[in-house]
Amino acid sequence: MKVQVDSSKCQGHNRCMIFAPEVFEVDDYGFASAQRGGEVPAELADKARTAAANCPELAIVISED
Q1: Which Gene3D superfamilies does the UniProt record give (predicted)?
Q2: C-beta atoms surrounding 52 within 10 Å
Q3: Which of 11, 17, 40, 49 is most buried, by the most CB atoms less than 10 A from its CB?
Q4: CATH no. of 2-63
Q5: What are the tens digits of pLDDT across the range 15-53?
Q6: pLDDT at 19
Q7: pTM, to two decimals
């Protein structure tokens, strides 16, 4: 699984960090990006899906490999 944060949609609510801090990181301005180039370890896949489902702007894109 890969995740990507659409920077044009992210508003810095950081809900992804609440649900999956092992998958996402935020910059100094509070905008999110994916860790590890977006590669999500299998054991964190459910957390990544939960974060995507809870993003108010739907800025998180998941691609299942």
Answers
A1: 3.30.70.20
A2: 20
A3: 40
A4: 3.30.70.20
A5: 999 999 999 999 999 999 999 999 999 999 999 999 999
A6: 97
A7: 0.92
pLDDT at 5: 98
- Burial string for 6-37 (b: 16+ CB within 10 Å, else e) reads eeeebeebbbbbebbeebbebeeeebbbbeee
Phi and psi angles of residue 18, each rounded to the nearest 5 degrees, phi first = -65, -45
Residue count (the chain): 65
The number of C-alpha atoms within 13 Å of 14 and in the hemisphere containing its C-beta is 10
Alpha helices in the chain (DSSP H): 15-19, 45-53
- Residue 25: enclosing H or E segment and its boundaries? strand 24-26
- Neighbour tally for 45: CB within 10 Å: 16
